[in-house]
Amino acid sequence: MIFKQTNLSKTGSRKASSKSTLGKFILLGAATLSLCLGAANVSAKPVSGEKSPDFTLKSKDGGNMRLSEQRGNIVLVNFWASWCGPCREELPAFEELYQEYQDLGVEILAVNVDDDPEKANVLLDDIEVSFPVLFDTSGDVSQLYDVNAMPTTVMVDRDGNVRLLHPGYRKGDEKKYEKAIKMLMRE
What pTM, to 2 d.p., does this model score? Predict the structure, then answer.
């Protein structure tokens, strides 16, 4: 009998262990699914057609700029950092877009997310841009737009609605921006 009791105890332990392992796998699967769905929601924020969150930031020129003051223009809000390699490539591409479309009601607001504006100024000594550079040293505006990649560009239409959210930069992305600008200009 002792043998049978021990054997039963081992069987009971195996069942409990199997249930515990199965529970862990279910929990892990649920957590993975939750993360995937969460990531899908993050990449979808802000939603196209949704009002763009308004903000006011200090500019490189010393004054403040408010996004809502740009209503009537198509605005590209570009979040960038001095340490970001793709940002260094993208800024000159934005300058070309700005030179071509500025007179047609297109504004580019380059929002630097470094904790110290001087870091941005050092980079801007090498890469000259004529569009406004704004400083989000606290990261508050980046949080409003749920920025989680550098650079990130948000295109806002004339009515202040988000029309495009583009994380990252690859050479040629500026052609996508130009196509979107032309589409918005026809509206």
Answer: 0.75
pLDDT score of 148: 93
pLDDT on residue 90: 96
Among 95, 91, 73, 74, smallest CA distance to 82 is for 91
Please state the three-class secondary structure of the chain as a single string.
CHHHHHHHHHHHHHHHHHHHHHHHHHHHHHHHHHHHHHHHHHHCCCCCCCECCCCEEEECCCCEEEHHHHCCCEEEEEEECCCCHHHHHHHHHHHHHHHHHHHHCEEEEEEECCCCHHHHHHHHHHCCCCCCEEECCCCHHHHHCCCCCCCEEEEECCCCEEEEEEECCCCCHHHHHHHHHHHHHHC
Percent of the chain with pLDDT over 90: 73
- For the stretch 122-132, pLDDT in tens is 999 999 999 99
Phi, psi at residue 25, to the nearest 5°? Answer: -65, -40
CA-to-CA distance for 176 and 166, rounded, in angstroms?
10
